[in-house]
Please model this.
Amino acid sequence: MKSTELIRLFALDTSFIESQNFLAGRLLRNLGDMGRKNYVKIYITDIVYREVLSRFTKRLSEEENKILSVKKTIESHIRVLKNFEDYAAYFTLPELDRAKLIEQFKKDFDEWISYADVKILPTKGLTIEKVMNDYFESNPPFGSAKKKSEFPDAFSFYALDQYFKMGKKDCYFVTLDTDFDNVLSKFVIPIKEIGEKLDVINRARELRFGILSLIEDTYVSSKSQLELDAKTYFSKYLEEEANTKTEIRGMAIDHIESFEVSDFKFDRYNIVQTDEFGAQLQCGAIVPYTVTLILKDENHTPHLNKSDFGYMGIEYSPYVIQAEKAIDFYVTIDLNLQTGKAKAKLSDAVSPTSIDIFDDWDYDFFFNQ
Model:
């Protein structure tokens, strides 16, 4: 019979660490703090360790190319600023020292592993029989396509399964890789959302120490103001993001006509970190927004199917994006245990997926409005 004791063991997949923007992710930092305090125990395999370093190097290379593109855009589209010495820095952005940044990240990653007391499980010496059987039988993570690229993931998961089977302990496996959705293990449990699991652990701890009710009461009393602050926060982001775009679907953007973020409510919150000074809450919301762009059709050529949308026969036309994004807002609650008072403030916001407002949307088009 399975124990009802809270699961405090977390194994991390490369996909989760990368989704956190590596060490910059708030949830990863929260988890590391909890590992430091022995509230949880964190595991990675040596394969995940090497994959994280490899993925960081690849992402750095990709983003270096984006920086070069931005520099070219500045050079060609903002030339008038060359008349002012105060803005010379726009045209002299420093070159990235890739080797130095990669070395620094490895050092920082090693220090985080030490700080959070992460245990690295070796995969050397594992028999390949089980993994090869899964491959030929199309079991997860290979699937019917028998993707050979999944061999590192398969060995990594097999190492976790063997380790926790020997110890007869349950462990959450935090991964965004859908290939693990149907994997079978009695002890390793794949999850995509870690916030809810940290919430359970932190609530149990703070209930024992008597401050859970203070955290909850502060959140409830501050919720309306926090939602207004979150709307303002996202509105500023939306404006900045929209103004950085120069084209969409091959059409040049002349300017941003308008943007609007509709009212929204936090639909859940998780207590993802606590200490003697306060707590960190993860507050989820679906944020609806509308952006109206004015597109410049310099060639006067049809760019969409005429039967559906007609020709764009004028030089400027509006393009309206109506969409919504799942956003996690982070709230800091500062506690004063001597006075029994607390205050809440918005501290950050991230998207569980891409936060690019022009990608991955549900959209409607309205032309010549």
In short: DSSP finds nine helices and eleven strands in the chain.
